[in-house]
Amino acid sequence: MLRRKRPVGLPRGLERPQSSGSDVYMARRNDLIAWGRKYSMWPFNFGLSCCYVEMATSITSKYDISRFGSEIIRGSPREADVMVVAGTVFAKMAPLVLHMYEQMMEPRWVICMGSCASSGGMYDIYSVVQGVDSFLPVDVYVQGCPPSPDSFMRGLVLLGEAVATEKRPLSWVVGPQGVIRTVKPSLRDNMRPERQKQTDLRSPDEV
Amino acid sequence: MIATTGTIGELSERFGAGSLHAQPTKDGVPTVWAGVERFRDVLAWLKSTQGGSYTMLLDITAIDERSRAHRENQPPADFSVVYHLVSMDRNQDVRLKVALQGPNPTLRTITDLWPNADWYERETWDMFGITFEGHPHLRRILTPPWWEGHPLRKEHPARATEMGPYHMTSEDAQRMLATMEFKPEDWGMKRESGDHQYMFLNIGPQHPATHGILRLTVQLDGEEIVDVVPDIGFHHRGAEKMGERQTWHTYIPYTDRIDYLGGLLNNFPYVLAVEKLAGIEIPERAQVIRVMMAELFRVISHLVFYGTFSADLGQMSPLFWMFNDRERAFDIVEAVTGGRMHPAWFRIGGVAMDLPTGWDRMVRDFITYMRKRLRDYDVTVMKNRIIKARTVGIGSVSQEEAIAWGATGPFLRATGVDWDLRKKRPYGGYEKFEFDVPTGTHGDSYDRVAVHVEEIRQSLRIMEQCLNNMPAGQYKADHPLATPPRKERTMHDIETLINHFLGVSWGPVVPAGEAIAVAEGSKGNHSYYLVSDGGTMSYRTRIRTPSFAHIQMVPMLCRGLTVPDLVAILGSIDYVLADIDR
Question: Which residue of B156, B173, B213 is in closest CB contact with A99?
Fold first, then answer.
């Protein structure tokens, strides 16, 4: 039988039984749930610094992250899925960041938006923690100072792709516990072949 | 440039020539040193009408003089506390300095003379360890309560990497949070009155309505606000200490991030101050380019303010529309500078590069587009009955109160005071432009927003004049300290190449001296007071920001109102957390 390319947006391993005309689809339970999670990741309305303005810009119409399922920005961590650490992690704010993270319910993910959250950025200074990964587990690092809304959305989509392949326990009483995550890809390495093909660089001297 | 005005002469006459010491500075601000015993009398006299009506205390800061080499014409001091006063009647500034000795000096407070001295003295205590006797609540303001040491002292480490790896477990976090627990007794508040108790509501630091990480603890009597205690410092990035570790040129990106909505508006006072110290004159084309980009960023910043204000009061669509307008403005910024929010595009001596061809078409389209949108927004936002009901008469402040608390910019102009530095003390080429300065009448939340909206229109007007009258010429000055020198010349003669190399690696060596440049930022008077010790890095970078003074006023504005009014007031004060905490 011909192998058709699966359209984007469907659960992994979605199969339609041989008998045509049937409306029954088969997939593994884990994949279906992971698919549902991927397309409904609600960010936590948590901005620390300048990156938050670009995150807010990505929520507005030109960029619109709700196309990717992040329809609702929750004000309370208890209702959110993704904590986007958008901005510098200050020494005075660090215990609160951890406090917010602890209030989020599993499954929860963390996106480091911007250089300051990833590593302290250009602020190697006494009052800034050099990267939120000193005390939080981070899933995606988005680079930029601040990352443009396109970069942030790319980070969100990347997280979605990772979430779709995660294996999580469905219950705390049944089955193996612990989350099995994908290995974090480096976009820089993955995109290098494509970028090396760019030879036509536009000059900044004209619009 | 020796400072010569009537003020120093009058002070000598009043207090005796021997008791005060005049210091020449490069910015023309009369600077006098007074002794510890007399400085309060001098300040009180300056504030009075006979003394010159220096009714606004713009800034209090300090300088750690212990490792400073070039202190000619200055009395010996380990620390000096600097008071910067402004007289609107005379349109003049004066700077008073007090010399202090010893590792932990003390000085009397001036919170009885100016109410806004409260937070400035707390910051000086926090950063330098100078105790202000008689201060009502001398406690840390920018650093966390568990911090040890005073960051701006020269012995305090600057870099986080010099302080060991960061560890924080959940238990550590709980311990730190416990130190931040609010205790009403610390602030002189009672927990109950008569037969009922007050409720202490914690708003923030994570809260959509606080426009950033700002914590407000509100003392409520039922629904009525009795008092508010703002807690800042959650956004403290040590920009002033960073200035002492970066060259004059590499510090420019740090300035962008002070008022993070303002972009190039932040570069402006910083490069102006360095240019004063270095004695650089800017060519006309560079001036007009700077003014145009600065006004474009004023529009960008005001659009965020306008959108978030309407969102705070319940409207959703204007926020989205205004952010879309901002995207069109960012198209221009990206085409000209390469960056969006933080271009860091101004340079010491001019701008980074010339404008691209085709810029005029983009700017013209934007101005036409934006003018129409503003008319639409007037109907949707400013004429809306609910918005008017929630902001007219709410959070009013009188002209005297605003000046006494150090309010500047649109906040001050909403009370009716016509104080815009672009008109009163034109800098950077603004004297060549025609524009009006909008003022309000009641100083309430509605007037503050109305002033901002009209300012967008005036900024578009200035941009149109830049568009129609852009002079030809150089985009950067031909001065040895202009950093980096224009690239075209570096390939032709070796001296320029050497200068270019040194300028971008070692950095320009700015002659010793002190200079302040105060600019009209989008939020108010934004100033950089730079002290150079004749090196490649600043000895002291003092950033006086408008939002610090404005948030100090929040308790006063909210008393007797309700929490929704507090939200409306916060939405109408244009502030940014990085502007408050730096």
Answer: B173
Residues B170, A102: C-beta atoms closer than 8 Å: yes
CB B486 within 8 A of CB B296: no
Best of B146, B150, B211, B237 to disrupt the A interface (most A CBs within 10 Å) is B237
H runs (alpha helix) in B76-161: 117-128
Lowest mean pLDDT among A28-32, A121-125, B511-515, B558-562: A28-32
Indicate yes or no: CB of B260 within 8 angstroms of CB of A207: no
* Percent of chain B residues past pLDDT 90, beyond the cut: 81
- Token pair 């339609």 in the structure block, residue: A16
Contacts of B577 in chain A (CB under 8 A): 49
> What is the mean pLDDT of the segment spanning B313-335?
94
The side-by-side arrangement of strands in the sheet containing B224-231 is: B199-203, B215-221, B224-231
- The pLDDT score that the predictor gives to residue B335 is 94
Which residues of chain B does A148 touch, with a Cβ-Cβ cutoff of 8 Å? 340
Residue B204 distance to chain A (closest CA, Å) = 10
Mean pLDDT of all residues in chain A?
86
Residue A53 distance to chain B (closest CA, Å): 8
Q: Which of B156, B163, B236, B302 to mutate to test the interface with A (most CBs of A within 10 A)?
A: B236
Q: Is the pLDDT of residue B315 over 70?
A: yes
**pLDDT value of position A20:** 62
SS3 B516: strand
Which among B177, B327, B361 is the nearest to A62, CB-wise? B327
Q: Which residue in chain B has the smallest CA separation from A54?
A: B341
CB within 8 Å: B338 and A126: no
Least confident of B62-66, B126-130, B499-503: B499-503
* Inter-chain residue contact A91 with B237, CB threshold 8 Å: no
Q: How far, in Å, CA of B285 to CA of A50, rounded?
A: 31
Alpha helices in B392-545 (DSSP H): 399-404, 409-413, 421-424, 445-468, 487-490, 494-504
Give percent helix, percent strand, percent coil of chain A, each to the nearest 5. Answer: 35, 10, 55
CA gap B400, B404 in Å, rounded: 6
What is the CB neighbour count within 10 angstroms for residue A114?
30
Burial (CB count <10 Å: 0-12, 13-18, 19+), residue B335: middle
Tell me the average pLDDT across B344-353.
93
Interface test with chain B among A99, A127, A132, A145, by most B beta carbons within 10 Å: A127
Distances (CA, A) of A1 to A4, A21, B432: 9, 17, 77
Task: Summarize pLDDT for B98-145 with one digit per residue, the tens.
Answer: 999 999 999 999 999 999 999 999 999 999 999 999 999 999 999 999
CA pair distance B305, B301, nearest whole angstrom: 6
Stretch B525-541: mean pLDDT, rounded? 94
- Beta strands B79-87; B92-100: pairing state: antiparallel
Per-residue HEC secondary structure of B69-83 comes to CCCCCCCCCCEEEEE
Query: Which distant-in-sequence residues (6+ apart) come within 8 Å of B378 by Cβ?
Result: B453
User: Would you list the DSSP string of A113-179?
Assistant: ESHHHHH-TT--STTB-S-GGGTS--SEEE-SSSPPHHHHHHHHHHHHHHHHT-B--S-SSSS--S-
Range with the poorest average pLDDT among A158-172, B185-199, B202-216, B532-546: A158-172
Residue A142 to residue A153: CA distance in whole angstroms: 9
Residues 6 or more apart from B101 whose CB is under 8 A from it?
B76, B77, B78
CA terminus-to-terminus distance, chain B: 30
For B250, the closest chain A residue by CA position comes to A122
Cα distance between residue A85 and residue A52, in whole Å: 9
Q: Which residues pair with B97 in a beta bridge?
A: B33, B82
- Dihedral of CA atoms A182, A188, A192, A194 in degrees, nearest 10, equals 80
